[in-house]
Amino acid sequence: MNLLVLGINHKTASVALRERVAFGPELAPKALRELMHTQGVNEVVILSTCNRTELYCCLEPDGDSDSVRHWLQHFHRLDEDELTACLYQHSGEEAARHLMRVSCGLDSLVLGEPQILGQIKQAYGQSHQVGSLKGVLERLFQKTFSVAKRVRTETEIGASAVSVAFAAVSLAKRIFSDLSRTRVLLVGAGETVELVARHLKEQSVTKMMVANRTLDRAQNLAQEFGAEVMTLEQIPDYLPKADIVISSTASPLPIIGKGMVERALKARRQQPILLVDIAVPRDIEPEVDELNDAYLYTVDDLQGIIEQNLESRKRAAGQAELIILDERDQFMAWFRSLESVNLIRDYRSQAEQLQQQELDHALRALAHGEDAAQTMQRLARRLTNKLIHTPTQALNQAGKDGEQEILAVLAQSLKLGQR
Q1: So where are the chain's domains?
Q2: How many Cα atoms within 13 Å fall on the side-chain side of residue 350?
Q3: pLDDT tens figures, 190-202
Q4: Residue of 50, 57, 58, 86 with catalytic role
């Protein structure tokens, strides 16, 4: 058996090609079943995200990467040269190491991002449902989940913000120790604000308001997070209720001005407001920072935090790599032991067949009245000769060929010359 990873990712392929090679939820079960019926393929997991598509296979001795690549090409009707130029593959211990690195976010677009582990668990669960998992990949993926947990526990790989959305929420958490008790106004309803909302939800924030130019988009976002909805024109009415304002729109002009914030602070009886402007051009007038009890941070402020934190994650990634090497070696020791288990089973079966043959021969002789002592002596002699026949041949052949290393291994295995 051999482990194989075949795939493309954000480093090797364009978005256009990644879209064509992706396996959506409706395609994955069919693909798993098809690939399982490809010659030489014994187990399969398909990982497909916006940034990567990877096929994890356990191959039989007659399986190879070419058959898997041809299957992928034909399944998605791709040009062979275009696909081959973007494909990477790993086998054996490098395949195991690659999966562990991916699960820890070490191969992600954003170093150390945690979402990929959940996506790997989904892929694993889908393979379980289809029945494309057996002993080896089952063990590898379970090992991988424990590796990811160990890396998260023993390193700071996920502790520091390295995206603008995460940095904005981390900043808010630093100022308000318990975000669950705060009310947050989100201005805009694009991807960045949606990601901010997800991070806020993870911090148990339940009181959110969403302001957007069009209500439809805001309502979709608000529905998911249980937020209130308003237009941009209604912000002055709701701003006094907000402890935190995080804004990211495509507006060419500021939406929140100094006077608006000043009036909100008076209505709040000078209770402070944290304002995080992650828009370019800016959504909040810079003069807001002149107000007492208004704490304004821009995307440039967050970028400094991100750069510091990225260095911290890089150091943590080095620690994670050492953990992965250790865990990979443990898995590969188990994987290699499977071959010896099979050999031992075959060897024992062979010996038991010889034993049964000679026992049957001896019992027939006794049934015909032959002398018991002679029969037992013949049984012992014949069984011994048959058991030592193959090792003796191997010793003779190694001696003739001058294979001293083979002779040494045979001598050690058979405990010869140890007087």
Answers
A1: 2-154, 164-307, 342-413
A2: 11
A3: 888 998 999 999 8
A4: 50
Report pTM: 0.64
> Each residue of 161-181: pLDDT tens digit?
677 888 889 889 888 989 999
- 278's CB contacts (< 8 A; 6+ apart) are 164, 165, 168, 192, 246, 247, 248, 298, 299, 302
What is the fold of 164-307?
A: Rossmann fold (3.40.50)
| Single-letter amino acid, residue 136 | V
327/347 Cα distance (integer angstroms): 31
* Digit-coded pLDDT (tens) for 232-278: 999 999 999 999 999 999 899 999 999 999 999 999 998 999 999 99
Alpha helix positions (H), 38-190: 65-76, 80-86, 93-103, 115-130, 135-154, 164-175
Which CATH number is correct for 2-154, 1.25.40.340, 1.10.10.10, 3.30.460.30, 3.40.50.2000? 3.30.460.30
For residue 188, the model assigns a pLDDT of: 94
Active site residue 50: yes
